[in-house]
């Protein structure tokens, strides 16, 4: 029988007692939409984000943090399940393409379109369903994007409360997606707040949730903003940019002209669209407005003496597009270049040992969220499915290197594979190569010819991953089974 020295045994008993007595942490998970890797004020590119800068100073900023897909729907499914898109079944978008070319659905046609009937496989277990049995109250306010039928909505999947929109994007004021009303309260459509800028609405609902639960029960507050995603309106002048309140536009230099005529617009006719300068200004204004709303929530948690025991995590659902700045990365949303999949991420949790003023360069991903938050909450992660992430707290608390050595992406015929410092990219056969990310994070120097043995090794690891995904228990809506 192993005997511990008396002093060590006493220390371990004291530690166990302290951990047992510590309250369960609250969780505030904030996800922005299409925000660029470099779009934090603290990085010096001119964007105004005092709250996110504060989070970076009071917590740890991750520089090698990846999402599991370079666009909305699959990225969100993976962060909530801890599983690759190819494993959880959401490996493409749940959306209709026709509105991109000016088509407006009739209500009857929309009701039977894939955007309306598609959704995450009901067998998938998502984060709130893991946390609820541990006593957590779970709310979501903002963008859902994982199905619009009642059986797919958040309150059917483990959330206690939901207010937001159900698909990939909306007009920020009308809350319509290409003319279709898209806001829900729990399982019911609503137009109660039509005309109010949606960032303010998500702030309002999140504040109500905090006031209702903070200090009374541990909570999981998921706040997936649609900012700074372009507006999903039919009108070219609106949809060609991001909508933002005038007071936040005024925080940036004036733009002249605001619009221009585009003779090659995708609708097939000349159209009035926002200029590049206006898109950049509007994008930044939407980020700054979102930042102000986040600041109000942090202030409220601080007033309630709950902030330091709240895990605050912020990141973007995928790489930036439109007016975004992904420097020094190559590419953008929708691509498997670094600019489509490596995103800004900040974690604040002083009570959990996450130190302030830290920059962490370890390889980490959104797949780590479910196992990590379950561990922090004392909840049991699902044991009947394969999770692709791990508990990241030892890495964030500088106790050990990240266990993650590989990460893979597949969007249709676009491929990305990272193995250690090496990244192989195949952009649908049009371009790509092998890159040393430690020396070349901008993926400018293709080393495929000079390092054929490395390319072969990375491609072999990708092939193994593909085989593993194909052998996994199939999930809908895309998989044939």
From TrEMBL:
Please state the Enzyme Commission number of this protein. 3.1.6.1
Q: Which Pfam families match?
A: Sulfatase (PF00884)
A single GO molecular function term of this UniProt record: arylsulfatase activity
Which residue range or ranges hold the Sulfatase N-terminal domain?
Answer: 25-379
Keywords of the record, alphabetical order, are: Hydrolase, Signal
Q: Where is the signal peptide?
A: 1-21
> Hey, which family's this protein in?
Belongs to the sulfatase family.
Name by which UniProt lists this protein: Arylsulfatase
Q: Which organism is it from?
A: Rosistilla carotiformis
